[in-house]
Amino acid sequence: MILVATMWKIKQSLMNHFPSDPRKGQIGSIELNLWLAQMSGVSVMRLRQNSSDIKIFIFLYTALITILVTFVYTACEFYDLALNWYDLNILTQNSCISLTHLAGLAKIINALYKLKDIQKVLEKLKYGLRTYAISKEQRQTFLDGELENKLLLTVYVAIVATTGLLGMFVLFLNPVKMAGKTFPYRAVVPSWVPFPLQLLYMSLSVLVFAMQIVAIDYLNINLLNQLRYQLNILNLAFDKLSFEEEQEKSRASDSPIFGKHSRRLNAIIEHHCLLKEVCQDIESIFSVSILLQFFTSLIIFAMTGFQATVQSDASNEAILIYFYCGCICCELFLYCCFGNAVTEQSKTLPIRSFNSSWYDYDGRYRKSLLVFLTNAQQPFVFTAGSFMDLSLPSFLGILSKSYSYIALLRQLYGR
Question: What is the model's pTM?
Answer without folding.
Answer: 0.88
